[in-house]
Design brief:
This protein is an all-alpha fold and 175 residues long. The protein folds into 2 domains: 35 residues; 137 residues, Ferritin. Helix content is 79%, strand content 0%. The longest helix has 29 residues. The protein is globular, with a radius of gyration of 17 Å. About 10% of the residues have low confidence.
């Protein structure tokens, strides 16, 4: 209860600042409270997760076997499509946001961890990472789809949500 009160207090203390949305989204408070991300936060998080997915799926193609390798191949194919669709929205000028081109510290740390694993250890960590990532992304897409401010991005979120839910189901099944 004290934890909830502290989180709620922090939310109200920083809610007036322009950078508060990014901070609250980054630390997960918006997700806990069900608050929609800003357009920039949505674009940044989607692009980061896309870059991350492609990078770790390439590792899995080389290091994994069976269902993990098949899942990685599916992720490579589908996330390249999603990335190009998001990029097209931003490049067209319809969505005013900046696409990140490199991974943030958190994603890079996960990549570095996976780089050093092989065999069963790699597959176990890859599979768990997929479950966790897709769960986070489901929340992001649901929150933006229902409360986001840009109509084209809301359509994008709704369009891709079913695929993400399927990916999460597949990731959980491979554990």
């Amino acid at each position: 209860m004290i934890r909830f009160i502290l989180i709620l207090g922090l939310t109200f203390m920083v809610a007036g600042s322009a950078s508060a949305q990014s901070f609250l989204e980054r630390v997960g408070i918006n997700s806990i409270l069900g608050i929609s991300p800003s357009t920039q936060d949505f674009v940044t998080q989607v692009a980061q997760s896309e870059i991350f997915q492609v990078e770790i799926s390439k590792f899995a193609q080389q290091r994994a076997h069976g269902t993990t390798k098949q899942f990685a191949e599916k992720m490579l194919e589908e996330h390249r499509v999603t990335s190009s669709q998001l990029k097209a929205l931003v490049d067209s000028g319809s969505v005013r946001a900046t696409l990140p081109t490199t991974l943030s510290g958190i994603y890079q740390a996960k990549v570095d961890k996976l780089k050093n694993l092989h065999g069963v250890d790699f597959e176990r960590e890859f599979d768990q990472t997929q479950v966790d990532l897709h769960k986070e992304i489901i929340s992001l897409f649901e929150r933006y789809g229902s409360g986001g401010s840009h109509p084209d991005l809301k359509i994008f979120a709704y369009k891709h949500l079913q695929h993400i839910l399927e990916h999460w189901r597949l990731a959980r099944a491979s554990q």
